[in-house]
Amino acid sequence: MKRKNAVMTVATGFLLFLLTSAVSVTFALFAYGRLEQRGASLGTIALVMLLVVVFLAIIFTIADVIRRRITVDKPTEQILSATERIAAGDFSVRLQTEHHYENYDQYDEIKENINLMAAELRKSEVLKSDFISNVSHELKTPLSIIHSYAELLKKEDLDEELRKKYCDILVQASKRLSDLVTNILKLNKLENQKLLPELSKFSLDECLAERVIALEELIEKKALTLDVSLDEMEVYSSKSYLEIVFSNLLSNAIKFTNEGGRVALTCKKEGKNAVVCVEDNGCGISAETGKHIFDKFYQGDTSHAKEGNGLGLALVKKVIDVLGGEISVQSEEGKGSAFTVVLKDAVV
Ligand SMILES: Nc1ncnc2c1ncn2[C@@H]1O[C@H](COP(=O)(O)OP(=O)(O)OP(=O)(O)O)[C@@H](O)[C@H]1O
Ligand SMILES: [Mg+2]
């Protein structure tokens, strides 16, 4: 409650009390004077005084009941019914405040908080159901591939080349499933902050070189030119977290670049900051796609939708947020993309 309102409440209470007492005393004195003038006995005066007091008490009780009904019972009932609806799972509840923002009383503040709580619950309900439908969709596609190709493999007179091809498809689909589950678990842990990063001193250029080596086969398969320029530097950060970031950025650069294209990886020291850039001359990202690339399950390039689940950059963003770094993208459709990661104050 605002301080001004608290003062107003005390002042109003005091005035009411003053008014009540003044009216009672004046009324009693007036009645006493009139009765004495008429020479009434002390017993009659006392009885009339008692009746006057009882009458005034009834009037004030009625007035207080009406006041309580308006100022206490009404908002309490509204709040009670709202909390009951929320408890029953109805998050569309919105309560009207009685006063303008500057004059909010405690009930208005409780109502505002209930509105915020209901809105938050509704938001997380929507996120949850979106998440479930996305996961179900992502599970269904590889599962139906596995089912159909396993059926095909059952044929007895299958030629060796086809058998190998079907097995490769099965391996790919099951890898997609396992990547999906791994990424969901990682995201979940990051979102719940269960997985606090283990910070240590390590060589960032070596960590990046290891990521490149892990992806060498894919780079060779697409005959990509790889330019690597890494300043030697020791950083204090989480190696396992950064591996998630750079593996995803590099595998995206490889995936979204045509055969014979170019991928570049640079790592520079800028004061205490480490700046890593993953660049490619692949398909690039349109302005519209660029708005969503860090969203969970978003895949802009539908031609690659069967490779991956659209969780890579969502994970990258989450990790960078946890580590307190920054990530930015520069891209032009048809020309290529550059993802820049800044690890603040990481260089030791
Ligand atoms: N280097 C890039 N070039 C062009 N588009 C990119 C690049 N990196 C990301 N994108 C776009 O951003 C989208 C989201 O990327 P993200 O890594 O989250 O998902 P994904 O690579 O499709 O799937 P996953 O990472 O789960 O394997 C991609 O589908 C693609 O449209
Ligand atoms: Mg990806």
Description:
The chain is an alpha+beta fold and about 350 residues long. It has 3 domains: about 90 residues, no CATH class; about 55 residues, Helix Hairpins (Orthogonal Bundle), CATH 1.10.287; about 140 residues, Heat Shock Protein 90, CATH 3.30.565. Helix content is about 60%, strand content about 15%. A 5-stranded mixed sheet has the order 2-4-5-7-6, covered by helices on one side. The protein has a two-stranded antiparallel sheet with strand order 1-3. β4 and β5 form a beta hairpin. The chain is elongated and about 125 Å long. Magnesium ion (MG) binds next to α7.
SSE layout and pairing:
Blueprint (H helix, E strand, L loop, with lengths): L2 H35 L4 H46 L18 H48 L6 H32 L8 E4 H11 L1 H6 L3 E6 L3 E4 L1 H17 L6 E9 L2 E8 L6 H4 L21 H12 L2 E7 L3 E8 L5
Parallel strand pairs: 2-4
Antiparallel strand pairs: 1-3, 4-5, 5-7, 6-7
Helix pairs in contact: 1-2, 2-3, 3-4, 4-9, 5-7, 7-9
In brief:
With 348 residues, the protein is α+β, with helices and mostly antiparallel strands.
Key terms:
single chain, 348 residues, alpha+beta, Helix Hairpins, Heat Shock Protein 90, 3 domains, 5-stranded mixed beta sheet, two-stranded antiparallel sheet, 9 helices, elongated, binds adenosine-5'-triphosphate, binds magnesium ion
